[in-house]
Amino acid sequence: MSSTLTTNKVEEFVSHIAENNLAVWNELPNFRKSGVEALKNLSFPTTKDEYWKYSRTTKITKNQYKFDQIDSANINLDEVRVAGLDTYEIVMVNGFLNTELSNLPKNDSITIKSFEECTTEELTTYFSQNLDTITNFFSALNTAYFSEGIMVIAKGVCDKPVHLIHYSEGESVISQPRNIFVTEKNSELSIIKSSINKNTNNYFYNSVNEFFIGENSHINYYVIQNYEEGMNVMSTNVATQENNSTFSAFNYTLKGDWIRNNTNVFVKGEHCESNLYGAYQPTGREHIDNHTIMDHIMPNCESNEHYKGTVGDKATGVFNGKVFVRKDAQKINAFQSNNNILLSDDATMNSKPELEIYADDVKCSHGSTSGQLDEEAVFYLQSRGLSKESATALLISAFLGEVVEKIKIPELKEKVLEIYGME
Amino acid sequence: MISIKNLHASIDGKEILKGINLDVKAGEVHAIMGPNGSGKSTLSAVLAGNEDYEITDGSVDFMGEDLLEFSTEERSRMGIFLAFQYPIEIPGVSNMNFLRTAINETRESKGEDPIAAKEFLAKVKEKSALVELDNSLLKRYVNEGFSGGEKKRNEIFQMAMLEPKLAILDETDSGLDIDALKIVSHGVNTLKTKDNATVVITHYQRLLDHIVPDFVHVLYKGKIVKSGGKELALELEEKGYDWIKEEINA
Q1: Torsion of CA A79, A88, A402, A421, to 10 degrees
Q2: What is the pLDDT of residue A19?
Q3: Percentage of the residues of chain B whose pLDDT score is greater than 70
């Protein structure tokens, strides 16, 4: 009885999204099919599911959404541009590529193109290859009804970072961008992902980013989430690494009503390095959830994961990091830590570090701390003339700054420090 | 400079200070000695404005102002400096950034412009040399990974940078070897002028060979039970605190 009811709800939810008579639905039907089929068997995630234990999705699933391709004449992207840094720009407006605002290269070292321009072989090789559309409702939803797909292929060391800018506007709008990043053998690529939202209400942004890091290639992926009110954000990132590759993801969440980031790394090659860094600072009634999977399948690799957050007011933070070391993955160094400071009595932090090791010759550690701001340190700073406010701000900056300092692009680091107020 | 009258303070409902009276004038050095648990550190914490303590009675006049009305940072800006017995480690905050912020917030509260970078650096160079604090420590995070002696020298360095009217040194000698003790004492003595004052809180007379006090007070069970000149410290060193306890408890 109840399962029939759930299915009907999902059907209804999906039908509103699908019924927009968008031309894109006719494109790439074979690729969308797996998502469409999966949705028929999926129900909305609930807090009874371990994976969604701390994040209610009813806030998203109770609403109806439409796609909205808006006029982009008045869009100004300056606020997210990085001073002094030249980049290629992919500009997506409500989930659709805007070619006028974008600056898309097609040269020897990098090609950026929409899925329609890709060969069937390219799409078959990469699309949805490591994405869980069978059990993950939102990944299936994106696969079935992604609004636009962009493929970035690096063939050499890219001369400039790629800046992916998502612009969102409107009420009860859904945006479902899909991006594939491929670094071929010996190549190098830095990606910056920024967002702007104006006049959003009940907006649902559901993006999927797939990374294929080829042999001896390197990806740095920087995400800056600094949303105005009215956005619910689901961001799924899945990376696959081959021999001697590096994948580093940096996630900085400053503001956002409801954010869930899933970042999963599958290390399928030897001698790889994987780094996952994150900082978050929810306040008010914000809800920020970071879920990560670090999956070591092959031996002789290293991974470092460090997430830090401050949770204030009545906000909630979630961190769930899972590290797998598979049976054949010997000589693995895997480190994970999550540190939190609760700034108010009403703030909540759910931290769950998990480690599953099936190999016997590995070095792994994980740990989680949640505590208050060090009052003795506040007093010490005050006793030297700092006001309580600046003492607190200085300590928070110092705490989160450790993760911000990891940014490898100096101009970007300066920008992130600036938006955190750490200068 | 500072006049403490009948000061009572308690923590978690337990009274620690039970009527302290003390007058310190500009240009003077006072030593406060006493056995463990007598209230020495509580006195310094209360004067610095630590809110863990509740003031239940008494008054403190600092240069004509009712000190107890002011917050910790206001007291610092008025010219009170507490050298901590256990300086706090603050990972992520560099010594230099911390000091510049401290100096500039103090200047701002007085309507002054921020310190010029050049002036700040020159002052850092001069004052760190005073306590032989290595330049590499200045760039590091506040007290993080410092040895005990380095932490105490860093306290005196901060004192030199902030130029307080009244410096309270809380067991600054604890854990110091003789060389470090001489360096710290040299710093304190050099900073002494006719316009400022120093209160040295210590358990041992040893420090007072190097920072010579004008007055010595014995704190016991939350009260100053005996005051005298520097010879009192020598007597305490020789005879211990028992004779005082006996005198009081009799």
Answers
A1: -10
A2: 80
A3: 100
Write out the DSSP string of A373-395: --HHHHHHHHTTT--HHHHHHHH
Interface with chain B: mutation pick from A308, A378, A383, highest number of B CBs within 10 Å: A383
Q: What is the DSSP string of B195-220?
A: T-EEEEEES-SGGGGTS--SEEEEEE
The encoded tokens of residue B95 equal 């010594």
> Per-residue confidence at A423, pLDDT binned at 50, 70, 90?
low
Residue B28 in any domain: the answer is yes
- Evaluate whether A131 touches A238 at the Cβ level (below 8 Å): yes
Q: Considering only alpha carbons, which residue of chain B is nearest residue A396? A: B92
Candidate from B50, B92, B162 with C-beta closest to A384: B162
Q: A203-213 and A177-183: which strand pairing?
A: parallel
Q: Sorting pLDDT into bands at 50, 70 and 90, what band is A147? A: very high
Closest among A223, A191, A209, A224 to A87, alpha carbons compared: A191
pLDDT, mean of residues B224-239? 90
Q: Cβ atoms within 10 A of the Cβ of A338, count? A: 25
The partner residues of B82 in beta bridges, in order of sequence, read: B168
In a domain, B20, yes or no: yes
Could you give the residue ranges of the DSSP H alpha helices within chain B? 40-48, 72-78, 95-109, 117-130, 135-139, 148-162, 178-191, 230-239, 242-249
Determine contact: A423 vs chain B, CB below 8 A.
no
pTM: 0.87
Verify whether the Cβ–Cβ distance B158 to A384 is below 8 Å.
yes
Residue B245 lies in a domain: yes
B70/B56 Cα distance (integer angstroms): 16
How many structural domains does chain B have? 1
Q: Give B163: exposed, middle or buried? Use CB within 10 Å, 0-12, 13-18, 19+.
A: middle
Best CA proximity match to A187, nearest among A153, A154, A236, A140: A154
Q: What are the tokens at B124? A: 């850092």
Please tell me the distance from the alpha carbon of residue A40 to that of residue A14, in angstroms, as a whole number: 10
Asked if A398 and B71 come within 8 Å (Cβ–Cβ), the reply is no
Tell me which residue range forms the domain holding B236: 2-93+166-249
Please give the Cα distance from B159 to B82 (Å, whole number).
8
d(CA A38, CA A303): 32
pLDDT tens by residue, A9-28: 888 999 888 887 677 777 78
In angstroms, the CA A163 to CA A157 distance is 16
From A168, A144, A25, select the one nearest A92 (Cα to Cα): A168
Question: Hey, are the CB atoms on A401 and B77 less than 8 Å from each other?
Answer: no
Contact B88 A398 (CB under 8 A): no
- Which residue, A401, A400, A399, A377, is CA-closest to A388? A377
Give chain A positions within 8 Å (CB) of B146.
none
DSSP secondary structure code for residue B87 in this structure: P
pLDDT for the residue A5 = 53
Nearest to A286 by CA among A208, A371, A225, A224: A225
Asked if residue A279 lies in contact with residue A341, where contact means CB atoms within 8 angstroms, the answer is no
Nearest to A379 among B50, B93, B106 (CB): B50
Distance CA B191, CA B88 (A): 23
**3-state SS of A172-230?**
CEEECEEEEEEECCCCEEEEEEEEEEEEEECEEEEEEEEEEECCCCEEEEEEEEECCCC
Whichever domain contains B55, its CATH number is 3.40.50.300
Q: Is residue B87 situated within a structural domain?
A: yes
Query: Could you tell me which chain A residue has the CA closest to the CA of B93?
Result: A398
